[in-house]
């Protein structure tokens, strides 16, 4: 048996392809947000109905991702990644070339499921081709790809859509994804799943209570973040007295912060994922408290928004690292679960913030997030004591 880390000739190039794949998929996910008004008009639906396209993608990722990962457990990760990219291209051809609303909605579920499967397979490949002490940084490469889609891909795709139409943006996504698929065929190495690692056996470890606890922490952190960030624009207008084009600067600051946070978070995950989660949860809490307390100061608000994005996304690699580590032999399946937990947190945060606003006004959404974030600090500290189950060390993975 030959260790894949020794036989993979270009790990940096492999990680670059995984980053690019995550970036393109993240762009496809976020495009609807930036072009929602154009989509609503062109498809003759309401804005809330167009918003359901975002929900469909999230549900596909949260539910379909783990399900597809379970069903493809025994397949080589290279084959899974390539197949996922093919499905992604085909599904995005539908909105690019004239599908109606119902078909677009169904396509978004498929796209989300493909994205969830890509995340899981990419995480396994990324951590397989690097030494164990660099696993967190390898995971951060994939996570940063998705974060960069919000900071860079979303505004660029929105500008393109406004210039050539929203279908033109999806056509561009398809073109880039096709080019990347050709490169991936040449670059991605074979990463077979050990024969003794069956889907049911993996599920026993992937859904162990210790793993569920960390997934719960992931959901809590993103409930806290999204309770405030979902309603950031009305908060800026009603509390900070910032509107118009100036709002874009705050959104850009948040996007840049998430990209920086996810990138540097990998190094902290390698150093101590448990400590990084406590620090990240604390940073999110302090940032939300500052946002609530000094919402009338544009400068302080900008710093707080940057802090939310920075500390929030910095927890991403550590959450992934802890879940995979605690899952042990169930790591290939467990790799898909943090994304599901995060999406559940995003949905829950948007709901909780909306309820708080209905009860007490816009600032209440930020206060709700701060309370949940404070709870997440205690949970992060408690999960630091969890240890993976003792299992026999597997043999090194061989390239076929």
Automatic annotation (TrEMBL):
In terms of Gene3D superfamilies, this protein maps to: MFS general substrate transporter like domains
Q: Name one GO cellular component term.
A: plasma membrane
Cite the entry's keywords alphabetically.
Cell membrane, Membrane, Transmembrane, Transmembrane helix
Pfam families attached here? MFS_1 (PF07690)
Q: Where in the cell is it found?
A: Cell membrane
GO MF term list: transmembrane transporter activity
Q: For this UniProt entry, which segments traverse the membrane?
A: 12-36, 48-68, 80-97, 103-126, 138-157, 169-189, 210-233, 245-264, 331-356, 362-382
Tell me the InterPro entries matching this sequence. MFS, MFS_dom, MFS_Efflux_Transporters, MFS_trans_sf
The record describes its membrane topology as: Multi-pass membrane protein
The superkingdom of the source organism is Bacteria
Q: Which residues form the Major facilitator superfamily (MFS) profile domain?
A: 14-391
Name this protein carries in UniProt = MFS transporter
